[in-house]
Amino acid sequence: MSIARRALGPLARGRTYTRWVHLVLGGVLFVPYCLAVLVVVTLVTRWGPGTWSAGVLVVVSVATVVLVGATGLLPGVRAQQVQVGRALLGGPMEQVPDPGGGRAGPRERVRSGAALALHFGVGLVVAVATMVVLTDAATLALVAVTGAPADAVAVLTALPVALPQVSGVAARVLGPVAGLVLLVVFVLVVAAVGAGAARVGPLLLGPSVSERLAQVRRRADELTERNRLAAELHDSIGHALSVVALQAGTAARVLEQDPAFARAALEAIAEQARTATGELDHVLGLLRQERSGRAPEPSLTDVEHLVRAARGGGAEVECVVQGPVGDVAPVLSRELYRICQEGLTNALRHGAPGGPVRLWVRVDGSGARVEVANPVGAGAGARRGGHGLEGAAERVRLLGGELEYGARDGWWTLSVRIDGAKG
Asked: Which parts pass through the membrane (predicted)?
């Protein structure tokens, strides 16, 4: 029972009939090409339909296939083939990516032409067979009503399941059954041909090696951009939230004893909130592929702002900036600023409470150096696998520098060295 169900399964699948439509459409579209070639042959050779030989028909068929294949070389045809194939053939064709608006190379166009010629050629055979089989099946099904006309008897006689000699009474009984069997067998054959077309389609319409490499490069670029935006959010918004949390906690503790300090902390919180809003607007502008004029990219010249924000929350920060930090190349300056931001954020989060934080920035002829150090606190271990430090290390490596971090002699140190940093 399971074997029969499996064999007859294509009859109940909608994909069988959409693939049938795809094949018949190919045959229908083949006809105008064939008529055009016939007209040209008639005008050139002066041969009429009555004088055509088998050789002439073969030449006409080959010329039609070549003309169809040439159509596949036109721009945009391949994209349409993929879209129609994905909609009607399904199966493996659904995995074929859209070629997009890019310019197809010669090999891709040749493959597209071969796919179109194969589709139209096989489709013509299926379309003609569909007309014949549906006509014969209808004729056989109506035998019981029409009284077994001569053409129905001829059809029954040609079937391998029928006896060589079929009488009118036998035709009335066997006709509808034979018509149903004929239709079922033909649908199963069409299902097999359609499944083959769905498997062959990706071979001819799928991306080439160069296109796959281009897709991989685009995907890598997208992932790189996403990672960069994630790092921007982590460094900027994460730092602002850490400072806000520190300042809010400090203000709550000294609100009654030192109202002036609490008021200054609240003002610093408001300033950090505005800064975070500007940073968020900048990142959202990058997501929209546009630059926001209200949030310029930070640089090493803004390090003092980070220090003031950390001091406003009660942290003891010692900052030393040496050299022409304004001469550092913009990309490097932004990344080094983010390193300082990440180091201060980690010091505020994980460093020993009330412990001093040392920030040292130096720019000279050999490059740029940044170092952030603070006494090891209870949360120092949480920084070993942090995404911020890992992202910072990756960005520094891309810039050709070195980043080191870890605990040593009771201090947690984050240091960066980038050679040739001046723009």
From this structure: 20-44, 50-74, 113-134, 140-161, 173-198
SS3 at position 364: strand
Q: The pTM is what?
A: 0.53
For residue range 353-411, what is the model confidence (pLDDT) as tens digits? 767 889 999 998 888 999 999 888 655 544 444 566 777 787 788 777 888 888 888 88
Q: Model confidence over 137-162: pLDDT tens digits?
A: 887 777 766 655 555 555 555 555 44
Torsion angle, alpha carbons of 244, 245, 246, 250, to 10: 100
List the chain domain ranges.
2-207, 215-419
* CATH architecture type of domain 215-419: 2-Layer Sandwich (3.30)
- How far, in Å, CA of 274 to CA of 268, rounded? 10
Instruction: Tell me the CA distances in angstroms from 384 to 25, 194, 259, 407, one per residue in order.
Output: 63, 57, 38, 10
Q: Are 418 and 399 in contact (CB under 8 A)?
A: yes
Both structure tokens of 325: 């930090």
Q: Which helix (H) or strand (E) holds 363?
A: strand 357-364
